[in-house]
Amino acid sequence: MSGAPEAGPSPDPAVDEHQLSQLFDQLDGDGNGLLEQAEVEAALRRLGLPAGAAYMAEWQRQYDKDASRTVDFQEFRRYVQSKERRIRAAFRSIDADADGQLDAGEVHAAAQALGLSVAPGEAERMVSMLDADGDGLISYGEFRRFVVMLPGAQLTRSNIMWAWLDSSDWLDGMEYRLGHMPPSQPLERLLAGGVAGAVSRTVVAPLERLRTIMMADSNAGRIGPVLRRMWADGGVRGLFRGNLASVVKVFPSSAIQFAVYDACKDVMQHFSGPGARSLSTAQKLGAGMVAGATACAATYPLEALRTQLAVAQAGSGGAGYLSLARLSLAERGVRGLYQGFSAGLLNSSCSMALGFASYEVLCTQWQRWRGTPPSTEERGLCGGGAAFATTGLTMPLENVARRLQAQGRPGFPRRYSGSLDCAAQMLRGEGLAAFWRGSLSSFAKVVPSVAATRLLYESIVELRGIGGVRRYRADASC
């Protein structure tokens, strides 16, 4: 409950104080002048919206400015007034005949215009869901009663329509339907993952090159000499050699990983059956494995070239991205771009399976420990913790893949016929420690990189409202 009134946005002149008071009273079940958690959860369930901890935390953040875990009328009014223009704009964009009411035909036309697959009967069900007075039409007040319960990032025309359709399905017992999303959503997911991965990888580019050299070169066993070698290879430019190739590879790879993982969770949620609210750890491991395998298959030539460029020295033949590609194709054909593919595929699949699943486990444990879902920043920490565990477990696979990717380049003669032969030679000639070569630089690079990627990705998703209210249903742990 708030004390003295705070400075806030100037009220929209169209806001009806009496209507706001009535709306607040409808939510305030016990009439004590405060919206408590149980009352808000009950209202969310009546509207078919998620009522789990993550959604409630988001709702509280936007309304409960004094963090009292209750919302009084002043807090409620202040937030609704700040969003009134956006809510009215969304309503007017659906109200084709501008009569101040929405009928099923207008709802159907608006959904179709946004690319949502909605049948006329579904539009009628959507209207019935919000039609409090039973006249077959949706007034602005009835529309606003639903929209004010959405997170602020969802207050766009497309996301409001998507949430409305999704909630209508949920109330009708359909639980979770595939395909009911704006066409822009898959692209936004891809861009969010790609941007997050590219930015974070650039920040840790020197550490990435350091660990790549130490993994690929059996003679590079100490960090100091490798760092001097990198600096001698062009100063600051030497530290970032291969970063452009890394970004070219990481952007699509990271985009595919996040998008495919989320899509797999959507499919699994759909087929989990009525009553399912969250996915099991085994299902998340499976989704992560598919995401890792898909990203690896789609971008492996870029990864192989990035490794070769990272170990190359300035002035060596084929030290540019395109020249390396031409050289590999000339020497071995397409096979040259897929050196070590089996080890890389296994490494990527296992890494993503463990990384995504352990991240979600850490989010769940954080919520149990703190009593609230992790914030965006705290999710970044969970991502870093998951990366620490995953890196230690999958480093042997990555070391094998790096050796195979680098062989054939100047200073890296061909020694290995395949993944098993490479692993056997490493074990016989260098011992078990060879599989964890570059571990210090790997932990120093991977943990902050993944933490930053997760932080950026979650920030973009939250800011853009990517995933709609559906992401709160499929991800009960967070």
Automatic annotation (TrEMBL):
Major location (coarse): mitochondrion
GO cellular component, one term: mitochondrial inner membrane
GO biological process terms on file: transmembrane transport
InterPro entries: EF-hand-dom_pair, EF_Hand_1_Ca_BS, EF_hand_dom, MCP, MCP_dom_sf, MCP_transmembrane, S100/CaBP7/8-like_CS
Superkingdom of the source species: Eukaryota
Signal peptide feature range: none
Keyword annotations of the record: Calcium, Membrane, Repeat, Transmembrane, Transmembrane helix, Transport
Transmembrane segment boundaries: none
Residue stretches of each Solcar repeat: 184-267, 279-365, 374-463
Protein's cellular compartments: Mitochondrion inner membrane
GO molecular function terms attached to this record: calcium ion binding
Membrane topology label: Multi-pass membrane protein
All residue ranges annotated as the EF-hand domain in the record: 15-50, 82-117, 118-153
Keyword DNA repair (UniProt): no
Family classification: Belongs to the mitochondrial carrier (TC 2.A.29) family.
Protein name: Calcium-binding mitochondrial carrier S -1
Chain's gene name: g234
